[in-house]
Amino acid sequence: MSGYLSGVLVAYLLNLIIAYAVFLPGAGGILNLGVAGFVAIGAYASAWLSNEMEWPLAVTILLSMGVSALIGLAISFPILRTRGVYMVLATIAFGEVVVGLLINVEAIGGAAGYPVFEFIDLPVIALCTLAVVLFVVWLMSTRFGLALRAIHDDEPVAALFGVSVRGVRVAAFTIGAAIAGLGGALYGHHYAYVDVIYFTTLVSIYTLLYVLIGGVQTPWGPIVGAAVFSLLPELFRGATEWRYVFFAAVIILIMAVRPEGIITRALLLRLKRRGTIAAPTKEAAQ
Amino acid sequence: MTKPLLEIQNLSKNFSGLDVIRDVTFHVNEGERMALIGPNGAGKTTMFNLITGVYPVSQGSIRMAGEDITTASDRSRAQRGIIRTFQNIRLMPHLTAAENVMLGQTCHSHGIWSWLAPVGLQSSRSRKEADHALEVSGLLEYRDMLTYDLPYGVQKRIELARALSAKPKLILLDEPAAGLNPSETDDLAQQLLDISASGVTLLTVEHDMHFVRRLSQRVIVLNFGSLIAEGTAAEVQNDQHVLEAYLGSDRKLEEEVAT
Ligand SMILES: Nc1ncnc2c1ncn2[C@@H]1O[C@H](COP(=O)(O)OP(=O)(O)OP(=O)(O)O)[C@@H](O)[C@H]1O
Ligand SMILES: [Mg+2]
């Protein structure tokens, strides 16, 4: 595989992992615009653990996911008390606080950035991405996933049928934080360098944007959303100056045509039904 | 069978100074079919919202099966068997009919394993139960369809199926017959009688007095938030206070008898 191709692919896969971190709470109606904060926590935690402790990568990555999850759990309580635009602002504030703290810790390089010695390449990243996709697809098919989607549609009614609205949302937010931590850890080990400027609110905004473009109704949404975001600009590479103008125009067009995201539940059910109509032999035989 | 299941004691509710429920006391016995009627704006839906914990009460108490639930959460009331339908259908639009029904089962999900049960699989126990519930209600053909563009009558039946899948002790029905045609109304009445025969207690808000007569053993009447009459359907229909209450409203009791 050419360096260019594998470079684009790694970027896509990392974006996809982070997309799932935003998707999970998003499926329950939580807008997390602080995901870059969790990515940063995962990146720095794993970098520090492998640089300083020299623990095996599998351990440092799992631990960094745990750290990110714990911080996610802790802040989910105040954040989930807020609603709408206040929740958006609270999560942005979280991301900014994380970056603000990290930049002041000399042990991890401070403003100068932090080199990461252990290297992770495409195959491991691809495997991790696959694991995340399978995990989220599975989770969304459990009663937990059903409850999460019910909360998204009608929170009061979900509670009237026994859904612990707070518990489910806290869990979704926390698991999302762990996934973001994984994305961050892989990021640091792949690019061999972490710096707070990679984890700004702009990253969070873009991630939420392409998650919404893909759609939060099904776990397949992020795959498409992250693809649009990571691969589309590459297609416009020829038109160097106009590249991002085209890109923005396409994004706006998609949002206008598919306001609930490209992949919706209705779309998947329609495709499935068409599939069963195309194959009527089974019923004819009965 | 005269043990009270739901006991409402001196219940009041006001919304920023407006008294919507005023000092109401009544009870529903176990296994009973009771109706709650009253002119538009009398406070019937608000009463349901208080019983299910959507709103906190201003004064008074609510007991379920002998236990005080006045301040219990909406979720814990569902777990105690209080389940409702809605005057304006509140199905989850992005869930299929089967998933909406499976949501009803959630109040009996305890422990991590039941939360991780794979309800999305066609072969899962939850899914089979939901399919069975839909089949019993004649709704199987809709099971994999999103509910938002299904016909109104079908949506109402799915709502009822969802409520039943919660295995309620007490089911609160907010105008279940509204918007249904006569034959649908007839089927519904029969279905509710069957549900009652299976041991579920019914409290029904309904304007159609013909339906109320057929379904209910006892009727209570609310007007401007106050309880003004109680008795059999025939008794309350001839009650002077009730006639006056409906005389002042834009909806006449006679009309409701006619429909
Ligand atoms: N959340 C609320 N805030 C303020 N006022 C409310 C609220 N909910 C209900 N009300 C008021 O309480 C009164 C009773 O409303 P409610 O919906 O309980 O009546 P209802 O008997 O169900 O009427 P209908 O037959 O039209 O359904 C109405 O005047 C309504 O405007
Ligand atoms: Mg009402």
From TrEMBL, chain A:
Where it sits in the cell: the answer is:
Cell membrane
* CC annotations in GO: plasma membrane
Keywords, A to Z, come to:
Cell membrane, Membrane, Transmembrane, Transmembrane helix
Where, by residue number, does the polypeptide cross the bilayer?
Answer: 6-23, 30-49, 55-77, 84-103, 123-141, 170-190, 196-213, 220-236, 242-263
**InterPro entries (UniProt xref):** ABC_transp_permease, LivM-like
Q: How does it sit in the membrane?
A: Multi-pass membrane protein
- Classification via Pfam families: BPD_transp_2
Query: Is Transmembrane helix among this UniProt entry's keywords?
Result: yes
Q: Where this protein primarily resides, as one coarse class?
A: membrane
In its UniProt record, a GO molecular function of this protein is: branched-chain amino acid transmembrane transporter activity
The organism's place on the tree of life at top rank: Bacteria
Origin species: Harenicola maris
Output the CDD domains linked to this UniProt entry.
TM_PBP1_LivM_like
Q: Which protein, by its recorded name, is this?
A: Branched-chain amino acid ABC transporter permease
Automatic annotation (TrEMBL), chain B:
> Ranges for the ABC transporter domain?
6-249
One GO term describing the cellular component: plasma membrane
Care to name a GO molecular-function term for this sequence?
L-phenylalanine transmembrane transporter activity
What InterPro entries does UniProt report for this protein, alphabetically?
Answer: AAA+_ATPase, ABC_AA/LPS_Transport, ABC_transporter-like_ATP-bd, BCA_ABC_TP_C, P-loop_NTPase
Concerning Pfam families, the annotation shows: ABC_tran (PF00005), BCA_ABC_TP_C (PF12399)
What biological-process GO terms show up in the record?
D-alanine transmembrane transport; L-alanine transport; L-isoleucine import across plasma membrane; L-valine import across plasma membrane
Alphabetized UniProt keyword annotations: ATP-binding, Nucleotide-binding, Transport
Highest taxon in the source lineage: Bacteria
Q: What is this protein called?
A: ABC transporter ATP-binding protein
**Lineage, opening ranks:** Bacteria, Pseudomonadati, Pseudomonadota, Alphaproteobacteria, Rhodobacterales
